[in-house]
Amino acid sequence: MKSTLAPGIRLITSFSRDSWYRGFILLLTFLFYTAYHLSRKPISIVKSELHRNCSTVIRPADLNITNNVTWCDWPPFDQDNYQTLFGVLDNSFLVAYAIGMFFSGIFGERLPLRYYLSFGMLMSGLFTCLFGLGFYWNIHSLGYYAFIQVMNGLMQTTGWPAVVACVGNWFGKGKRGFIMGVWNSHTSVGNILGSLIAGVFVSSAWGMSFIVPGLIIASTGILCFFLLVEKPEDVNCSPPQHHSDQENGETEPLLHNSSSADRTINGAISTEPQEIAEEHTEAISFCAALSIPGVVEFSLCLLFAKLVSYTFLYWLPLYISNVAHFDPKQAGDMSTLFDVGGILGGIMAGLVSDYTGGRATTCCVMLVAAAPMLFLYNYIGQRSLGTTIGMLLVCGGLVNGPYALITTAVSADLGTHESLRGNSRALSTVTAIIDGTGSIGAALGPLLAGLISPTGWNNVFYMLITADVLACLFLSRLVYKEALGWCGRVPRVRGFKEI
């Protein structure tokens, strides 16, 4: 009797060697950027521990104190201006991140991605651990913590352009909104894990809330050094196939190399088609990337979308602690629901934009819906546990959905413009411009929250609602063009080639 393969083995052998490598690279890049976001989250959890309501804390019997109000706080955050000081820490990181992002894309195009990512994750782990060691070294200098945040912000810029460029080397005919939305969930997964890990230690020894995530991202840096394969040619896999779907009304997404001539490694074979293809793998300038239709509009939209998203990232646990009177761990755990909603929102945005072909319209509708939901969350979101959970999920989906769509599928569509010719090296610059502009908003949001929150949380939410409206306005021209396409007055071509 002829033996048959076990079902598991049949499943394994049903995939080609190339498919296994591509899946492996997709998983690795997912883990890498999850680690990046995981290490950014602890500061938002620890804030409510650095400045507490000491009247509700049981004082040790052997502790001699002179101030009953601030005895349990961590100087210098024991003063009335603690929210402003928290804003300084946030912006030390975010301003450095925003500035560094514009240069990171340049380095990402010119340095080996394996070394670049490994270095970035190891250094991010070092500075994250140094922040936590301030607890054990009994450091109370704002300058120390601000310097650590600046350096960590610069190191964190190595992540996104390099990860996207690596994916671009492996995936040719790209995945559209749904797949990109699923892959981009690494952002929210990292935020959730970072909140949960930091929450375990925040009430007992908040330094470990930084040290453990720092060790995790450093470990992924070592993993990157030993396992990352930058290009398919390095392991004798076939490069991505490059053919157009224009007969189906679509154009090629950005995530591919320039031509099949890229099979040649280090220019070992010199043919005329390869020389032509090589011209399209040169790094593009900032001006050339900015001239791609849609880049400026989506970059400015992302500025305000990230302003809202990062304000929640850094201030939501403190808001929940202050308004709903949860302890730091409970507030951190509750804040993860916002990121759970972000995962669902990113996937939903990708699905809807795939079906309709309207990236800008999808973003605009979600941003418009987010404004009243933010207003409702501020006024009724803390009335009951069920209301809090539901509002956090909905607000997370509506706020992070457009953010996820712009940084993934929209970037892929913009890369179909003929000036790029499918240049995966140019992807690093385009991504850096879009995410770098968005990071300016990410820096402004927590800063404004720190300045406005002393006047009342209502004013913070009015600021967030205004930012949502401005994000919509920057997309108005693109939405109008998409509407004309649906009415049949202009050709519907995904990729913004005719905008």
Description:
Helix content is 69%, strand content 0%. With 499 residues, it is mostly helical. It has one domain: Up-down Bundle (Growth Hormone, Chain: A). The chain is globular and about 70 Å long. The C terminus is likely disordered. InterPro entries: MFS, MFS_dom, MFS_trans_sf, SLC37A1_2, Sugar_P_transporter. It holds the Pfam family MFS_1.
Shape: globular
Q: What count of domains describes the coordinates?
A: 1
Any idea of the CATH topology?
Growth Hormone, Chain: A
Derived from helix and strand composition plus strand pairing, the structural class reads mainly alpha
Q: Which CATH architecture?
A: Up-down Bundle
The major sheet is characterized as: none
Low-confidence stretches: 242-279, 492-499
Number of strands: 0
Helix content: 55-70%
**Average pLDDT:** 80
Radius of gyration: 24 Å
Order of helices and strands: HHHHHHHHHHHHHHHHHHH
End-to-end separation in angstroms reads: 65 Å
Tell me what portion of residues adopts beta-strand conformation. Answer: under 5%
CATH class: Mainly Alpha
The tally of helices reads 19
CATH superfamily: MFS general substrate transporter like domains
How is this fold's topology laid out?
Blueprint (H helix, E strand, L loop, with lengths): L6 H7 L3 H24 L1 H9 L31 H29 L2 H24 L5 H15 L2 H12 L6 H7 L2 H16 L6 H20 L44 H8 L6 H5 L4 H30 L3 H29 L2 H22 L4 H30 L9 H29 L4 H18 L1 H11 L13
Helix pairs in contact: 2-5, 2-7, 2-9, 2-10, 3-9, 3-13, 3-14, 4-6, 4-17, 5-6, 5-7, 5-10, 7-17, 8-14, 9-10, 9-14, 13-14, 13-16, 13-17, 13-18, 14-15, 14-16, 15-16, 15-18, 16-17, 17-18
